[in-house]
Amino acid sequence: MRVFLALVPDEKTRTQLASISRKLRSHALGGNFTSTSNFHVTLVFIGDVSEETIAKLAALVEKTQFFPFVIKTKQLGFFATKGIKDILVWNIERQPDLSELQRQLMSELRQMGFVLEEREYRPHFTLARKVHFPETFAMDLEHYPAATLYMKCDRMSLMESIRTNGKLTYREIMGHTMESPSTRLMKKK
């Protein structure tokens, strides 16, 4: 199974992501745009694991604690595949709680024996792959008028990446929703 840890958006955020995706698709000459159900923010890509390993990863998700926080998008841009800038992303502003959660997970996974890629963490939503735009549009993409998107992050998910009838699908294997400090106080009363 090919798995990763992620923050999955709520329906309101998915709707906003789908809206900007449709607008950008209207300018594209081609590409594979992310389906609405697949939007997420990757925390750690783990890769191929056995069925037995899933239970260990699920336990990690269950025991990981963080206070809910909010992330916000910044400019649109591209990531490169083999030197070609063809992955359209909506970058996420650096946020201390997000960075700390990602570092914590990387550390825990390494202690569990996982070998993970060493590269800078650049949080983002992937909007399309193998995408290309007219050159003048692509050159000015980071100035495209996209309203800032805010997303509450209170649920971490262990996700599986599968292909069904040739279609890439991300499926939640297991998730854990965090409580805010105020919710915890209310429950104690």
Q: Assign the CATH class.
A: Alpha Beta
- H/E element string? EHEEHEEHEHEEEH
Q: Compute the CA-based radius of gyration.
A: 17 Å
Helix content: 25-40%
Q: What is the strand content?
A: 35-45%
The overall pLDDT, averaged over residues, is 91
Q: Strands across the major sheet, in which order? A: 2-6-5-4-7
The total strand number stands at 9
Characterise this structure.
There is one protein chain. By secondary structure, the chain is an alpha+beta fold. The protein has a single domain, classed as Alpha-Beta Complex (Cyclic Phosphodiesterase, Chain: A), CATH 3.90.1140.10. The protein has five helices and nine strands; from the N terminus they run βαββαββαβαβββα. A five-stranded antiparallel sheet has the order 2-6-5-4-7, with helices on one face. The protein has a four-stranded antiparallel sheet with strand order 3-1-8-9, covered by helices on one side. Strand 8 and strand 9 form a beta hairpin. The chain is globular and about 45 Å long. The chain starts with a strand and ends with a helix. The model has no long low-confidence stretch (mean pLDDT 91).
